[in-house]
Fold each of these.
Amino acid sequence: MGHGIAQVTATAGHDVRLRDVEREFVDDGLDAIRSNLDGGVEREKLTAAAADAAFDRIEGHTDLADAVSGADLVVEAVPEDIDIKQETFRDVEEHAADDAVIASNTSSLSVTEIASVLSDPSRAVGLHFFNPVHIMGLVEIVVAEQTGETTREFAREFVSDIDKTAVEVTDSPGFASSRLGVALGCEAIRMVETGVATAEDIDAAMELGYRHPMGPLELTDVVGLDVRLDILEYLREELGERFRPPQVLKRKVRAGNLGKKSGEGFYVWEDGEAVRPADSSEEGRP
């Protein structure tokens, strides 16, 4: 998610620093941005000059202090783990300017809890982007208990400035989008598990019958089965048994079948495209 956020921010005309813990990961992010920009030129979404200008606005870093020093906004996109996010917030606050807004791209965790480690939690807010960031038009602004009005207004202006549409929600488990999206995806997985229909037919039903741009099972592959499992476990803890993860999801994650990023989930993926449904032997298993 981090490279996508960097891309859309740079495309909107802002200078950006993209930071990760290893240079290899930084370079992978920069390569993905370059590929996305080139694809946009091919589809005539932007000119070659605009793509080059956007890419030139992005610096890659591994040192956190160098990355956040002087920034107006810092957006973390680390894994969905409350301890990692809190540690990241602490480290960012140590090196960022006193008036910098610190945002989390969490898709479900409590921004209020993440922000609680800050000396000044009023500058914390959730900015939940959607994958792929350069295509999806939505950003969910999550207002924590401590979020100040100045921070809230900054978030609104930033989302508008990068040409995205904001929905604003009060901090609660799963917010609006993840809570509803995961509920739909979870039920689709249960339907595969109990043999109601194949993943391909369930997705086709939602795409053709409800005009979803992508079916819930293909979307689960894109998001990552491990990410969906973590969200469900968290929502189950916070909201109850209706969010109990299906066993087939657990089995696939244990097997390392995490979706698009691993090459197989509910579909088999090649060159970033779902080419066929995965082995259907999981269907009908208890």
Amino acid sequence: MPKIVYLDAFPADNALDILKPHAPGLEVVRIGRDQPLEDSFAALADAHAYQCVPARDEVPEPLRIHREFLARAPELLVVSSGGSGVDTFDIDACTEAGVLVVNQAGGNAEAVAEHALGMMLMLLKKAPQSDRALRRGWNGARVEFRGADLLGKTVGIIGLGHVGARMAEICRSAFRCEVLACDPYIARADFAERNAVQADFEEVLTRADIVTVHTPLTPETRGMLNAEAFARMKPGALFVTTARGSIHDEAALAEALESGRLGGAGLDVWDTEPPAADHPLLGFDNVIATPHTAGVTRDSRERMAEYAATQLIGLMAGGDPARPVNPEVLPRYRARFREILGG
């Protein structure tokens, strides 16, 4: 019988409801982050699928998917991320072991795009500055907080996947923005379909009034937004990221804000999550900060749980993955599937 083990950090209420009708043919086991590791690995020793989450602060290091973990789960066929990110997964180790990695890309795209849009609007309207001034007892002239409209601005999108494409659609359709996007993994013909004009990284930085980041964290993107990149942005431009911490250099961003080079920043992701209360970026009045909550809405959590459950049900029945992260592993994965589960 196929066995699915899921980590308690995964929002699984409706996922379990979806799995219930398949219960006679599936064993579903929950492990807790706070329970003894030996108990967790006892459950994982004969598991065929492991449902994890991508947020680094929510998964104890031993329960992240790496070579040591895989060695202790020899029958594992599939590891599934609760979102689109795979920060807690060693993809190379999974591929070497013949383990398929899947995610739930697109499940929280609306939530993340709306969050990024909200940050953009609030920064343009100088809402963080006015909010903090009022809390300090401000009694001045309203013109001190004169902002700007989003209408007609140039928005630069780095990463035109599910979230980036939704951002482009909103900005172009609702606010008549010029939308520039860079993404080396999107075919040239697809940019127009995704409501954006293809541009290189340099052009996005130098032309955009607002730069918003929607890429995964990879060796290629780590530290991509560094001091040199911030120096190339338009004076007074806004920087927003709801992607992953470590794609932008936090010290370099703080310096760009301190110097007045940038007009403000909206930050949902951090090198260390949550950031310390004395983090330098939290000291700026023109910074909106949230603790990696862009994708954490009731609607998105239900959607991602549904995506995860239905994908695992299909895979355990011998079907093809809907959202594979390492598709190159499929031939070996299928051979291991036949060997371990038959059919």
Amino acid sequence: MATKAQWIEGARPRTLPTAIAPVVAGSAMAAAMGGLALVRAFLALLVALSLVIGVNFANDYSDGIRGADGADRVGPLRLVGSGVANPQHVKAAAFGCFGAAGIAGLILVVLCGHWWLLTVGVACVAAAWYYTGGEHPYGYLGLGEIFVFVFFGLVAVTGTTYTQTDRVNTATWLTAVLIGALACAVLVSNNLRDIDGDRESGKRTLATRLGHTGTRVLYLALIVVALAGVVWVGALTTWWCLLALVMAVPLVAPVNAMLTRATGMALVPALRNTGIAELVCAVGLAVGVAIGA
């Protein structure tokens, strides 16, 4: 039986900024349009957190039963791959999280009145499960980054704003793109760390296709997109949004790791710091909008 600490580690708390940041950023854009609704923002946050934790458990289960998480895996503990938890218990935890996301999402839809968003919620859960689940997981086809960009960037940010303001403007779309780029960078750093093990297990992530050098270039390109996006959003809303550029501070170490070709466990801090940078960016945008108002 896995301990409480092992379950917490299995939930991969380092990835939680990818759930919090889009809701904070989307709410900031709602505030910039004069429509901030805190209760709806909180519900959106519950949806995002439940989905991220759910997809982490789902990945743990699916990769574990496929043998993709061997004993020599680099990185945080995997519950199924390490044998510390019953696979069915991990699967149940994943669907429990998806259920929690569904309940919070339903309440949010009732409050905002946009019932078509239920189809978006179903798509989010399906995408979370089939990332590494099912017979043909798209995460094994090098499409994981697209999933993260769309659902933890475009959908999460614009959805948060839309459920509060009933509209989405250009600044919101740009915010969604830059947050999506940072979320992708988190996954890219994770997959770069696991690249050798994934190749051996037959898991064809985008990193295994691009190779070490190509993956590092992709990471740096995503960071450039995020930084440029902040400047553009500032130009459309308030220049105080440039406070989000403080995210460059936690990005120094990850960028250095990419440039110095760090590998294995040396890339674990890169994942953590990239997630922190995404959260700092979102908070910077929110503070900037508040000051600008």
